[in-house]
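Problem: given the chain below (464 residues), write out its structure.
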Amino acid sequence: MQVRYLSHASFQFTSESGFRLLTDPWNYNPVHGHMLWQFPLNPVGEHEYVDQDAIYISHDHADHWCLRTLAHFRRDIPIVIRKYGAHIAMAQELCRNGFHNIIELDDGESRHLAPDLEVTLFIDPATTDSALVVSDATGHVFDQNDCMLPDTTCARIRARFDIDLALVCLASASIYPTFFVMPEVEKEHAAALRDRKVMDRALHFATSVGATAATPCASDLLYFRWPETDRWFGPLPAEFREYAASAAPHLRILTPAPGTSMQIGALPDALTPLHANRAEWINDIRAFREDPEVAAVCAELEAWEHSFAFDPSRFLHTMSEHLAETTTNWDARFGGTAWEASGWTVVWVLRDERETYTYTMRLSPCDGGSASIAIGDCDDWDMRLTMDACMMQMVLDGSLSIPDVRGGFMTIERRGDMTPDEGAFWQVCAQFTDHLLRHGYAVLGHAQFDHRIPSWNQQSVRFQ
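Solution.
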């Protein structure tokens, strides 16, 4: 079996008979609220990219599930997905887009896609994600993508398969500490701790499934509109390889450049990554941002975002209503949260050219639980969030969600470390868009810019 790395979580598996399986096809940018761009880009042209015999889609996040990319494939191609309940309509959405050969697999279920190529799917019960083991006569490959499987599931995989190569998630794009306001020394320390945690987690998954070699993946992303974030971006493949040399010397770390193939049963001792260090990576990013197409998208995005005029009364009314519903359903939403005694207090600072709007939001577990928002500042805040008011109006209109604007459009000040209280606050924020849609306050307009530009047209920014 040959494993070819294309970009991010997209790998092509080719069996001895020539059967080709492509994982997580994604080739349109930007994604996740117009924040992230695939980088490095897939180096393969459109015809070669879509010339496949089957597809696997791991989950429903935009950097793995891209209908605009899928539109280039023939409609009878077999597509392997996790068997979801009614709450995730991936199979129905694929059918609506003309795909009719959908293979839904449950946890631990196997299927021969070809006489000499078998796949076995495993699920993370806490999320919508799945992982895949791809097998043929030459060996077995574990494809993690973003899937944080329970240790018990990893043990099942290890007992069932002799994993030759683990494609493990490096997850380099993170909000903390990238968009947090803190002294530089403190931020450097926080970034180093985050990087070590991310790399240790990747090594843990590779070791837990019993792999003898590992390749980092699902980390080819870039906050393309914020050059100041480049130094705070998570670990690069070359950095992971260097770290693993001492942290996990039993593992062979292979760092293929996009387009590189690896032969199971004859894996190389090492592979040269596309970027040898962060300085090379940043140099290529600089050239990428100067690409006229990327610059034009940035300008168009900024003009579109600033066309939204903030309505403070609408924000206060709809958020107050949402928080009242949160209070009513407190136990159902937060019954398992280990709250601090004081709860969580957040100050929102929303700015436009004419005015600054300030609101204080409080979540408290006392007396059965309560959530509220009021106009004005306070001194006892746990977190302070500052952003352009137009971005909150985009949330109110359904064009973005608060989780979208949290990375890049918002600066975050926090007193102390992350707590379960803060986690509950972000959960409330994530549910705000559902409230707006359910009550008819917003019409979902998420995809206006997401998945807009195909990377196979960007010849000038491939860095082969």
